[in-house]
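P.,

For your records, the input lines for the assembly:
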Amino acid sequence: MMNELNTPVLKASGLIKDFPIGSGNKASMRALNDISFELHKGQALAIVGESGSGKSTSARILSRIFEETAGLIEYKGIKLKDFIKKFGRLEYARQVQMVFQDPFGSLNPVHTIYHHIARPLLIHKRTDKQGVEQAVYDLLELVGLSPAYETSLKYPHQLSGGQRQRVAIARAIAVEPEVILADEPISMLDVSVRLGILNLMAELKDKRGISFMYITHDIATARYFAEKTAVMYLGHMVEWGDSDAVTQTPQHPYTQLLLSAVADSARKDTVEFKANTGEIPLWGKESKGCPFVSRCHKVIEPCHQTMPAIKEISSGHFIRCYQV
Amino acid sequence: MKQIPIHGDALVSPDKPKANLIYKNLGSKLKAFWSFFEGNPPALIGGFLLTLIMTMAVLAPVLASHDPDRRVARSHVEPSAKHFLGSTRSGRDVYSQLLFGAQKTLSVALAAGAIAVFIAIGVGVTAGYMGGRVDSYLNFLTNVFLVFPQLPLLIVLAAFLGQVSSLVITLLLGLTSWPWVARVIRSQTLSLRHKEFVISAEVMGESRWRIILVEILPNLVSIVFGGFLGTTIYAMGAEAGLGILGLGDSTEVSWGSMLYWAQTSSSLFTGAWWEMLAPAMALALTGGALALINMSIDQMSNPKLKTGKHMKLWKKLKREADQRRGLV
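Structure tokens returned:
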């Protein structure tokens, strides 16, 4: 029993993903480079980083939209490929659900809300034909879309962004998943409704024991929602650990830069905003060194040569930087 | 269906909503149908004309005053109360021929349009959704059909087969006029393919065919319908064209064969303008009606093309603003 608790639901080690550039197959860009993380039951892992840092690519590899180039993914302690072989792709699709960034794009404009929530129930045979209707209403109530009956008849364009994202979440939890990969679920919503969605996800996490991979570029919400946080830059994990440690005592220059960008009127210690405004390089197979050198203000010679090794600076707080 | 709690204690009775739902849906469907015509003169005119023409074609046996295949008058009688549109050289009643000819011409055009659109949907959606090798094969096939000069090909085929029946013409037109619709559908499918709702359906484990039929196809309705109307107009013209050239079956009554006989009897030279003008006007009106509807569908799927009251309002406001500034 103890063992089961300690085994991560989803574990990725050494993930690498190359995308070909252009029509020739020779050139490629490395979207993910040596990414490792664990998702535990009932916990959330926030992945923070700017656009192009490989956050979404990681989620899309886990949801099998993309295939990893190298690396190992384990699901519930067994290799993902073996799990899919044993239980089928459909079963994995049921257990690992995804919530997309754009609530305007992730719902089909020609179908009602009812269709969107009933389909996963029917595909994965969660209820019989008679029970579907009631199950849909229950789910809509659960995510706070009442009156459920009226909502189920509406089309996506008749709902607000926040309501649509609630529909997307209802659809994801309809099949009782173990993991939800939330790809920037609140970044396209009005600030006023973000907290509601975050709280809904937190409730699902705590009450239903669903593991979340919460992808965001807003490091403040990462601390609010997730137990663990990993900071990514250009396909590399640069700093990770307990959310409090990462966000309160950031050590990597990039994490510090990210935090200095968070608006906070109460902040007294005016962190000096230090960064070079260098170009972001295109990362390829042959690229070497730390990806952040062009924008880092603490560069030393080895930074250009090799990526720093992983250092544990305090218990459960890791970093890859020479200067710490 | 169990009871559904709505906002606290209030409960909806189990049977009521369903009955209401049917009326509500019907009501909203009718409303949506009307909203297409509202404030849209091209759609109104086109819809009215097309309804009129279709009704006349369907009711031809009732409305016709004579048998279209029988000699019922002297040669080239002028339009009169007895023969509304006069008679042909061989003494047939033009008005009755026009009504029965509409049946033939419209059924050929609509059937050819339907065949073409079905092929186009199959090829276009499959190519766009599957991508890769399937796409390049299907795209090649589409391009081959696209570069065929259609009308000359039809003429050669029709001439080769002798005077062919309208069924053969329908098939020929249907099988050769799908490529441009297929291309439009393919490109639209390509753009839908990477929309998040399609990806999320895939992640959820939805089957390929269901994604194509249920998730993607309903989003293409306006394009498919536009393509259908376009192909129908083309097929109608091509059918008439083949008829005039005498490549269709001239013993069948259609607008094309009417034009053929009007031509061979040199009706315009002898002053019998009605024999030529009646089918020509019918073709022009029907084509115009279809084109008008097609235009309004374009406006619906691409609101940038929309003119009308919005533009008028804008112009009015601009004029007023200019006057205030003393520019006019």
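Two observations worth noting. Chain B touches chain A through 25 residues (CB under 8 Å). Residues 58-297 of chain B form a domain with the MetI-like fold fold (CATH 1.10.3720.10).

Regards
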